[in-house]
Design goal:
The complex is a heterodimer of chains A (about 300) and B (about 450). Chain A is mostly helical. Chain A contains 13 helices and no strands. Chain A folds into 2 domains: about 30 residues, no CATH class; about 210 residues, Orthogonal Bundle (MetI-like fold), CATH 1.10.3720. Chain A starts with a helix and ends with a helix. The mean pLDDT of chain A is about 90. Chain B has 2 domains: about 200 residues, Periplasmic binding protein-like II (D-Maltodextrin-Binding Protein, domain 2, 3-Layer(aba) Sandwich), CATH 3.40.190.10; about 200 residues, D-Maltodextrin-Binding Protein, domain 2, CATH 3.40.190. In chain B, helix 14 crosses helix 15.
């Protein structure tokens, strides 16, 4: 009783309130605001490892250098291809699986656990697994591809390397989309479907006019998560190809890592990061606006 | 009432923070010992260093009062993480395991300690440097502007590993022409009776090793990185010939698996240890790994010099893993003392070499009979490096140059550009890097 009234009274005291939020403010400044401001500062200086503590001011030079670097544009192209293919395929497959599971056929629950197993693996483990599996000399995946008369050098061919990485991403992250959509489907109200059945709506019509509109908010979450996550994909690419062969799989994350950490061009890396941040922010805003407009119309 | 409670709560917060601070300070200072933290990458190095630290803490700490803790971080991206840690100016780690290529860069940033003064101090370095006998090439690799910045710790080179049961006359592998002929002989697309599908493998994945393996070809075709005025020579006839030869092994003659541009140390090691190829150029560390994987039998695998062009000397690539001391460490002298014991002490360095099977680049270690009985390949390794040892150039710009080579050579391996174009592009970029670095004006 005493303690309850003690905390209630403390809660009314403004000074204590401010005192208690200081740690959060400090954490926010430390992990978000300061690094962001520091990135801007770095991007405006010609920072390398060698002059790290006394870099000369270079204005927008880094941004000009990034824009005129063909490897930057290549990495943007590679990233967008990766994000688009991976997200679309994961959505389609995830939705298909969720719909199948949602039919509540007896025994299907057994399949859920193996289905979501890839989610439990870290990208590094997945990368190492496929690195060994696809090896031409002793990889089991390569062996079976050979038995099926299919191409075996998937990661070393500029035409197939990126598609192989996308396929691995799909293998790992489709379960994530499946889980979200399955939960969404399970939560949908039954009445609209029953009414549609009474009105003689076909399966296709029910999907288009009831399931998808009702599922839109859940789909929006799944899409935004997958876009943001695949946009910053690093581990799998780093372990499997490091951007090769040539530059065919160099995503924007690998490009930034190469600029800032391998070459030591920290200023250039910071400028690229900010450009990507702007790009993602714009894309996200457009996307959110689109989905919000959809809500209003409805 | 409220005012009293407010002060009570503030006092409580202050008391809790005070207790935590005092407890932390007590836990952080174990008696009168000084604890130093050494950062090492996960794997054989960290495992070995932990054994060395245990031995030191049990046997040497009572005299020195220095307690050693080994901290490890993963191998992927290890070097960039160490450089980032050093740039953070954190005193958390007193010394770190770093490749010699990065010493110049870290030294120019001022984040590692110059060690000349420490070496000159008999209290800190009570050993006879001549007697210890560091290989000159290893000390050269840790120098920046005439000052020593790190302890050379592990010297590495590359050998040609070959299967004795398949190759009767290994002398044929002495030249690149012989190497190609033999590779064709052991490739099924050239010789249907070949016991192996491919004649050789190589490290073609962009990263740490691909350029380093190419240097073996480059030097042994007669190439050199710079002329006397620091002008880059990456598109010299020797450079183009070396790259053309290496690319042709995969793309034209197909004597190596077509996916070698995803191969690093691990893939080449597995190909050798499982007998999938009859010979390959590989790091010296693979000798111990193959020994372990084959239960000491070595599967009839032997080592010899890497090939060369007729009329040109072979090249023994050397680089050194080193231990620089963090310039912001609070225990620099203690860290130096431990590193000195580990690399130079007659008892310590031999113990470390024997237990860790690490080739410390000193005569004291290389010529010790006990050490040689465990690592017989070291005698050959020492002679090979002494006769033909070559190293990358110890300049701070080297990581940038290394990445430039990675970028364009990877494109040549993928068939996107010709080896000539790749060499020209590398040379232009390196020229720009050197000009920006102030090595010359025009």
């Amino acid at each position: 009783m005493f303690m309850t009234s003690f905390w209630e009274e403390i809660g009314k005291d403004k000074t204590v309130k401010y005192l208690l939020i200081i740690p959060v403010i400090v954490a926010l400044v430390g992990v978000v605001i300061y690094p962001f401001a520091y990135s801007i500062w770095l991007s405006l200086h010609d920072v390398t490892i060698m002059n790290y503590f006394h870099p000369p001011f270079s204005g927008v030079d880094n941004f000009v250098r990034v824009f005129s670097d063909p490897f930057f544009w290549n990495s943007i192209r590679v990233t967008f291809t990766y994000v688009f293919l991976a997200t679309v395929m994961e959505l389609l497959l995830g939705f298909l699986l969720a719909s199948l599971m949602n039919r509540n056929v007896k025994g299907t629950a057994v399949f859920i656990y193996p289905l979501i197993a890839p989610l439990a693996l870290s990208p590094v483990v997945v990368g190492l697994m496929f690195r060994m599996g696809l090896n031409r000399l002793y990889g089991p995946i390569s062996y079976y591809l050979n038995l099926l008369n299919l191409p075996r050098n998937l990661l070393s061919d500029v035409n197939t390397a990126l598609l192989t990485l996308v396929a691995i991403d799909i293998w790992q992250w489709t379960p994530f989309v499946f889980v979200i959509l399955y939960a969404g489907l399970q939560a949908l109200p039954k009445e609209p479907f029953e009414a549609a059945l009474m009105d003689g709506a076909s399966g296709r019509q029910r999907l288009r006019y009831i399931t998808l509109p009702l599922l839109k908010p859940v789909l929006a979450v799944a899409i935004i998560f997958r876009i943001m996550d695949s946009f910053k994909t690093f581990d799998i690419v780093f372990i499997l190809t490091k951007g090769g062969p040539g530059k065919s799989t160099e995503t924007i994350s690998i490009f930034i890592q190469r600029m800032a950490m391998v070459q030591g061009n920290v200023g250039l890396g910071a400028a690229t990061t900010l450009l990507v941040l702007v790009l993602i922010t714009v894309l996200t805003q457009v996307y959110v606006k689109y989905f919000s407009l959809g809500e209003k119309k409805r | 009432m409220l005012k009293g409670k407010r002060w009570l709560s503030i006092t409580m917060v202050v008391v809790v923070l005070g207790v935590m601070f005092v407890a932390g300070s007590v836990w952080a200072s174990p008696g009168d010992k000084t604890t130093i933290h050494i950062l090492v990458r996960t794997g054989a190095e960290a495992d070995g260093m932990k054994v060395a630290a245990d031995y030191y803490n049990k046997n040497v700490t009572p005299q020195t009062g220095i307690n050693v803790v080994i901290d490890e971080i993963g191998r992927h991206g290890y070097l960039t993480r160490v450089v980032t840690m050093l740039l953070g100016r954190s005193p958390k780690y007193d010394a770190a395991f770093l490749l010699s290529n990065y010493v110049g860069e870290a030294a120019s940033a001022g984040v590692i300690e110059p060690l000349d003064g420490y070496f000159a101090d008999k209290q800190l370095y009570p050993y006879d440097k001549e007697k210890v006998g560091f290989l000159p090439v290893s000390f050269k690799s840790v120098e920046y502007k005439g000052q020593i910045y790190a302890f050379p710790f592990v010297i590495s080179t590359m050998f040609l590993y070959y299967r004795k049961d398949l190759i009767d006359d290994p002398e044929k592998l002495n030249t690149w022409d012989g190497f190609l002929d033999m590779a064709k002989q052991f490739t099924r697309s050239h010789n249907p009776d070949s016991p192996t599908e491919f004649g050789t493998v190589m490290q073609g994945k962009p990263g740490e090793c691909m350029p380093k393996e190419w240097y073996v070809y480059f030097w042994s075709f007669g190439g050199k990185f710079f002329d006397e005025n620091w002008k880059p020579q990456f598109n010299s006839p020797a450079a183009v010939e070396a790259l053309q030869y290496k690319v042709d092994l995969v793309r034209k003659y197909k004597v190596a698996p077509p996916d070698v541009d995803t191969y690093e140390y691990m893939e080449v090691l597995s190909a050798l240890a499982t007998g999938k190829v009859p010979f390959a150029i590989q790091w010296d560390a693979a000798y111990g790994d193959i020994q372990r994987q084959t239960g000491g039998t070595m599967m009839n695998i032997a080592i010899r010099q890497t090939p060369c062009k007729s009329g040109v000397d072979p090249a023994a690539f050397t680089h050194t893993w080193t231990f620089p001391i963090n310039a912001y460490s609070k225990h620099k002298k203690e860290a130096f003392k431990f590193l000195a014991w580990m690399t130079s002490d007659p008892e310590g360095s031999l113990w470390v070499a024997k237990k860790m099977t690490i080739p410390l680049p000193t005569k004291q270690v290389f010529f010790n009979p006990d050490v040689l009985s465990v690592n017989p390949q070291w005698e050959y390794m020492f002679e090979f490096m002494k006769a033909y040892g070559q190293a990358e150039v110890a300049i701070p710009e080297w990581p940038m140059i290394h990445d430039t080579i990675n970028t364009f050579f990877s494109m040549a391996f993928a068939g996107e550009i010709t080896p000539q174009a790749a060499c020209d592009l590398v040379n232009t970029k390196v020229d720009d890097i050197m000009r920006r670095g102030g090595y010359y004006n025009k």
